[in-house]
């Protein structure tokens, strides 16, 4: 993972950005106010979704969750029509084999503290090409806990520092993702993914009460496949026959190792779930 400290370290030839109420020519040119509360206090929400030659996948569901997240922070509802206009603008004329769209909605200008933002809110939408996630990932357990009862539990906010530290911990241990245990002692989620375990042929995933984000891909897998929601201890999860993780940018990714536990790289249940998801998502980009 390369730290981006200057524009020269990142190939931005394919990056397109919309800020406020219109597109910008230079992705490094837009200036965000130094008192924007998304910057000052992490007072913002976001969504990240994939885009293919069929267009953005699951945009409606992502916009609905963006609104739920905004309301949880006390932000005004984002204008879905404006977001769709921005998404269309940053993807216009592009034929993506695979791309990523990032939608960010902040509280706008505010005080240099934790008081509420003054507004109006700020919309930023960016789109770029993306390298496909590997078919198989490797997990480590994060040394920090997920809070099951925090004000921001289950909310997709721009206050992502905890996940940044978790992912850095994973990379430092030659893994692709870090998994959190929660304050109740049960398995929670990854830094940017939901986890599923195959136990005696049954697919099991932690419930929302475990302090997790209700992932879009997670929800679709639960709608399209037979899945049980229940609490899992770390030991139980690592005793599974198969493990896989889901996210909007991974789809369904098999896991071959978690700490010292090893699994069949792409077991039969994981392969079936992956196949169903691939077929159903390809057939309908707005499920």
Question: What would you say this structure looks like, in words?
Answer:
This protein is α+β, with helices and mostly antiparallel strands and 287 residues long. It has two domains: 123 residues, 2-Layer Sandwich (D-amino Acid Aminotransferase, Chain A, domain 1); 148 residues, D-amino Acid Aminotransferase, Chain A, domain 2 (Alpha-Beta Barrel), CATH 3.20.10.
The count of β-strands is 15
Query: How many individual helices?
Result: 7
For this structure, the CATH topology of the largest domain is D-amino Acid Aminotransferase, Chain A, domain 2
Q: What overall form do the CA principal axes indicate?
A: globular
The main pleated sheet reads as:
9 strands, mixed
Distance between the termini: 33 Å
Name of the CATH superfamily of the largest domain: D-amino Acid Aminotransferase, subunit A, domain 2
Helix content: 25-40%
SSE string, helices as H and strands as E: EEHEEHHEEEHEEEEHEHEEEH
What is the strand and helix layout of this fold?
Elements: E1 16-19, E2 22-24, H1 37-40, E3 44-52, E4 55-56, H2 59-73, H3 80-91, E5 99-106, E6 122-129, E7 136-146, H4 161-172, E8 177-182, E9 187-190, E10 194-199, E11 202-205, H5 216-224, E12 227-229, H6 234-238, E13 242-247, E14 251-258, E15 261-262, H7 268-283
Short description:
With 287 residues, the chain is of the alpha+beta class. Helices cover 25% and strands 29% of the residues.
Key traits:
single chain; 287 residues; alpha+beta; 2 domains; 9-stranded mixed beta sheet; 15 strands
């Amino acid at each position: 993972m390369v730290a981006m400290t200057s524009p020269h370290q990142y190939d931005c030839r394919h990056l397109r950005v919309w800020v406020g109420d219109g597109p910008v020519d230079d992705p490094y040119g837009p200036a965000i106010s130094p008192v924007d509360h998304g910057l000052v206090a992490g007072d913002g929400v976001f969504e990240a979704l994939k885009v293919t030659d069929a267009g953005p996948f699951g945009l409606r569901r992502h916009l609905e969750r963006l609104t739920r997240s905004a309301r949880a922070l006390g932000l005004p509802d984002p204008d879905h029509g404006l977001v769709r206009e921005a998404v269309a603008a940053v993807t216009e004329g592009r034929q993506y084999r695979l791309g990523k769209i990032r939608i960010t909605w902040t509280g706008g200008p505010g005080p240099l503290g934790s008081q509420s933002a003054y507004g109006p809110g700020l919309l930023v939408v960016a789109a770029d090409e993306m390298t496909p996630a590997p078919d198989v990932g490797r997990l480590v357990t994060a040394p920090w806990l997920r809070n099951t009862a925090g004000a921001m539990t289950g909310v997709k906010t721009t206050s992502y520092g905890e996940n940044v530290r978790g992912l850095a911990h994973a990379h430092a241990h030659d893994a692709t993702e870090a998994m959190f245990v929660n304050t109740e002692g049960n398995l929670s989620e990854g830094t940017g993914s939901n986890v599923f375990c195959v136990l005696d042929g049954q697919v099991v995933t932690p419930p929302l009460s475990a302090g997790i984000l209700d992932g879009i891909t997670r929800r679709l897998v639960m709608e399209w496949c037979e899945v049980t929601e229940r609490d899992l201890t770390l030991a139980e999860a690592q005793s599974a026959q198969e493990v896989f993780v889901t996210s909007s940018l991974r789809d369904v990714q098999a896991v071959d190792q978690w700490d010292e536990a090893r699994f069949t790289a792409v077991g039969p249940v994981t392969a079936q779930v992956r196949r169903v998801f691939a077929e159903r998502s390809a057939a309908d980009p707005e499920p």
